[in-house]
Design goal:
Helix 8 packs antiparallel against helix 9 and helix 14 runs antiparallel to helix 15. This protein has 16 helices and 16 strands. It folds into 2 domains: about 290 residues, no CATH class; about 60 residues, Arc Repressor Mutant, subunit A. Helix content is about 40%, strand content about 20%.
Length: about 475
């Protein structure tokens, strides 16, 4: 096809998002659901290993978390759903089938609103269903090692409508989706730990038409960066193919993303529902969610990330600061506690978003390593009561991050209590005046800045422990005599 005959094409993108739920136990058994960093094959049992004669028992907490996520995504929670067996062979799925949901998912027909370049966008959600995860394969040369610790982990699969038109839109949507799942505590969505993964489908069509052409599905993308790069590459590849063949793909295909090489590789023709041979799971009865239960779950929903972000912006925080708070619950809890106590968003931002996060980064720690809310409020109390100065408070916070100790213990051990006794400060002021005659002369000749040098001298003598307000007040009183 000649270049001038090429129609104007647009990309049609949809996502399937797999998010692990942060329950204590697995989806259908009592095994520990936290497999990260554990020795291989140590958090398994007969049920998640698919032994004959064992029966799965659905995890109530996982069902509630999935329903909460569905409601936060404006989905309708279906009053009746059921589990199905999805048959395919993977060496890391011991039972030989996955327990999923097909015809009757937990929830359907929702949407996510997200921001892109200052514009509000919307992406429809087709369905949200529950399933159990497979294990993990590690390939070493011609040998493949199987770790079944992850087998049986509760998963939400969230399927979008084909409403996205670019890699940039897909990433912006996925970021908002992740914030929402974290906000309702349905998933930690830690992508470094593989808790959130994407399958992205992309096809092309002539702009102005409504037809959905065969698509290319990109499997197992585990970061926003990989999602964006893979979609950009595959869209460009499909455009080149259209130019060469004169049309779209002849049929649906599945490709894998090679991150090191920055390209996709054809894996197979895409499977259909017929290939998976779905049939109702015979060992689990239908799941019924009555109106009262759904209403109770809805009442437990917190403000959405977009609503919460707007609230922080209205407090005077920058958009970037507000984004950190909605994305990191542990940091947000500390900020909210300090802001509520002090009624000063600027001060709370300085302590939490500037000082605390700076110390965490310096120590190579994560937001999960933050001090407790009670310890942070004790530090605020110590500063406000004049026990320590604001500058000393920063030092105490640094030591809290480094050692994990409570502020009162650090203050006592370091002898950091603020000097506020008038008699002691008057003696210090008298000594400072005697030892800085030039500064005193300058001050009396009208140089107000010279007073700061005297205050600084007192602070230096006391290692910053003198109450600077009282030093200033008593110094001016002494110089008037």
């Amino acid at each position: 096809m000649l270049q001038e005959q090429m129609p104007e094409l647009e990309a049609i993108i949809g996502l399937e998002v797999h998010a692990q739920m942060n329950t204590k136990t697995k989806m259908f058994c009592g095994c520990d659901n936290d497999a990260f960093g554990k020795e291989p094959n140590t958090t398994v049992c007969e049920i998640c290993m698919g032994h004959p004669g064992t029966l799965p028992v659905p995890n109530k907490e996982a069902i509630v978390k999935a329903a909460k996520a569905a409601l936060a995504l404006h989905c309708a929670v279906n009053r009746r759903s059921h589990f199905d067996r999805k048959h395919y062979f993977y060496p890391d799925l011991p039972s030989g089938f996955q327990i999923s949901q097909y015809d009757f998912p937990l929830a359907s027909k929702g949407n996510v609103r997200y921001d892109l370049n200052g514009n509000e966008m919307i992406c429809g959600i087709t369905r949200l269903h529950i399933e159990n995860d497979a294990g993990k394969l590690t390939h070493r040369g011609s040998v493949t090692l199987c770790d079944y610790n992850r087998a049986g982990t509760p998963l939400m699969e969230i399927v979008t409508e084909p409403d996205l038109r670019s890699a940039e839109e897909a990433v912006a949507f996925a970021e908002e989706l992740r914030r929402t799942l974290i906000a309702v505590n349905a998933s930690e969505a830690d992508m470094f730990k593989g808790m959130m993964r994407f399958d992205a489908s992309v096809s092309l069509r002539e702009k102005g038409t409504e037809k959905l052409n065969p698509r290319s599905e990109i499997k197992n993308l585990n970061s926003f960066k990989a999602l964006e790069k893979a979609l950009r590459y595959e869209e460009a590849r499909l455009r080149k193919s259209w130019k060469e063949t004169g049309g779209p793909l002849p049929g649906d295909i599945t490709v894998g993303w090679l991150d090191d090489e920055g390209k996709t590789r054809l894996l197979r023709d895409k499977e259909t529902a017929d290939d998976y041979r779905y049939f109702p799971e015979p060992d689990i009865p239908p799941l019924v969610m009555d109106e009262d239960r759904v209403a109770e779950i809805r009442r437990q929903l917190p403000a959405s990330p977009r609503e919460k972000k707007q609230e922080y912006v209205e407090m005077g925080l920058a958009s970037a600061e507000a984004t950190i708070l909605v994305e990191q619950p542990a940091i947000r809890a500390l900020f909210d506690a300090v802001q509520t106590k002090t009624r000063d968003a600027k001060r709370a931002s300085g302590m939490i978003l500037t000082q605390l996060m700076g110390f965490l980064n310096a120590e190579g720690k994560t937001p999960s390593d933050v001090p407790s809310v009670n310890d942070m409020l004790d530090l605020v109390d110590a500063i406000d009561a004049g026990t320590i100065s604001g500058n000393s408070g920063k030092t105490v916070l640094e030591k809290m991050v480094a050692t994990g100790k409570a502020p009162k213990d650090i203050i006592a051990a370091e002898g950091m209590g603020q000097i506020s006794d008038d008699a002691k400060i008057e003696a210090l002021v008298k000594e400072a005046i005697a030892k800085n005659p030039k500064a005193i002369e300058d001050y009396k000749n009208g140089k107000q800045a010279a007073l700061g040098a005297i205050v600084g001298y007192v602070m230096k003598m006391t290692n910053g422990q003198a109450n600077p307000g009282k030093v200033n007040k008593l110094l001016q009183k002494a110089l008037k005599k």
